[in-house]
Amino acid sequence: MCVRSRTGCVVPELTVRVARARDPHGTTAMTIRDHLNGLWSDEDFEEWYPRDGRPGLSPAQLATVSVLQFLLELSDWQAAEPVRNRIDFKYALGMELEDPGFHHSVLTDFRQRLAQEGRADKLLDLALEKIRASAWSASAAGSAPTPPTSWPRSAI
User: Fold this and answer.
1) b (16+ CB within 10 A) / e for 6-26
2) Gap between the Cα atoms of 5 and 58, Å rounded
3) Which of 55-59, 103-107, 118-122 is least confident?
4) Alpha-carbon torsion 87, 10, 70, 79, what sign?
5) Among 37, 47, 87, 111, which is least packed, fewest CB within 10 Å?
6) What is the per-residue pLDDT for 55?
7) pLDDT above 60 (res 152)
8) Predicted local confidence at residue 121, as pLDDT
9) Strands 2-3 and 55-56
10) What is the mean pLDDT of residues 108-132?
11) Beta strands in the chain (DSSP E)
12) pLDDT digits (tens, 9 = 90+) for 73-100
């Protein structure tokens, strides 16, 4: 399998309109897209895939699904299903509304590639570099809530 050109660089206009009409304030998936889009590009993954072979899915999109999967505590199946069915996931991945998504086993293959030769660390370092360089990190630094070190008994 080789890397095919990413289709999700720009969210299709219809996907944006429908997603914003459905969730004007956004969802976790939409926030990930709005704030963290561009953390990875398919070029960041080129060495993971052979140059020839049948075209595969966008690894940058799979990385985004993996982030959502982690944040929302989803199994592979539970992460692949909303890519097929949920407008906010299609928005997050820059997909057309009629895009059929992918089989959940693709996430297992992606994780196996990620686990090789320190790739996960390299990818995290790349993402952190881009976050630090973005205006978002500067604006978010002062507004991020600080988690409590202990909960008051009345909240339990």
Assistant:
1) bebeebbeebeebbeeeeeeb
2) 7
3) 55-59
4) positive
5) 47
6) 58
7) no
8) 86
9) parallel
10) 84
11) 2-3, 55-56
12) 999 999 999 999 999 999 999 999 999 9
Range 34-37, long-range pairs (CB < 8 A, 24+ positions):
35/136, 35/140, 36/64, 36/67, 36/127, 36/131, 36/136, 37/94
Find out whether 33 and 11 touch, Cβ atoms under 8 Å: yes
| pTM of the predicted protein model | 0.73
Tokens of residue 146, six digits: 């600080």
Cα distance between residue 96 and residue 139, in whole Å: 31
- Measured from the Cβ of residue 111, the count of other Cβ atoms closer than 10 Å reads 14
Task: Provide mean pLDDT across the span 126-147.
Answer: 60
Distance CA 93, CA 123 (A): 18
To the nearest 10°, the Cα dihedral for 31, 124, 63, 47? 150
Tokens of 33: 């897209």
Instruction: Tell me the C-alpha distance between 138 and 143, whole Å.
Output: 10
The HSE-up count of residue 149 (CA atoms within 13 Å, CB side) is: 0
